[in-house]
Amino acid sequence: MTLAETASVIDRVEALPPVRQLVESMDMRARKSLAQNFLFDLNLTRKIARSAGVLHGTTIEIGPGPGGLTRALLLEGAAHVIAIEKDRRAETVLASLCAAAGERMTLIEADALQNPIWALGTAPRRIVANLPYNIATTLLIRWLEHASAFHSMTLMFQREVAERITAKPGDSAYGRLSILTGWYADAEILFDIPPSAFVPPPKIISSVVQIVPLAAPRYPCSQAALELITRTAFGQRRKMLRSSLKKINGESLLNAAGIAPESRPQDVDIEGFCKLAQLYEAATK
Length: 285
Description:
The protein is α/β, with parallel strands linked by helices and 285 residues long. It contains twelve helices and nine strands.
């Protein structure tokens, strides 16, 4: 698409009625059952869109709702936005935006939990989304299994989950999610969003997290073994690892990995857990 064509799309999107007005006129109220909290502030949604970088290739949005963030992505020059939404009401509210965007927007009525988004569109693929909080962690873990398909993920989580994703060894929030994310990617919290920015306002602070996948996992091991080791270890995070890993011959694995059996799980880095996963997998073949 030429610069002139891009400018034309931006003009058409800017000419649309405000998202809040469309929502009110079509009575699309946020549904608790879908964990919906809408963002109407265009300055804020454009800040999120800009934080994702230059939007070449395909930008995938999960749960666009009435399209507040979708508009921002288009206004920031996204070459192609694929929006995945399971709420059938959204199609009516988003109709005018789809018409204004033309070929630059595709709306798919689907459940993101069931959709292999790593195969959509063309590279480079980015995910930019205000995720439904009730499935956000499940979605992230699924996408990390296909991390190499994505250039980046710019995602909104509740602050507590964002801290778990980005925590380092020794942090109180460090755990299974920190290790799995850090094994596949680099992650950082970019900024927070207060409850007052949403309709309806949630009871928690939200955070935008940037996740940039590595070309390959940081250390060699299987995800299944790594998840088993971390789940077992952090299931009893206050205990020494020789106790929490006892059922899987943990002391022998710890000694072989060069990790003190008296260590607690929050003090072991990603490389250490990957060594344990490697040794466990070798021992059980």
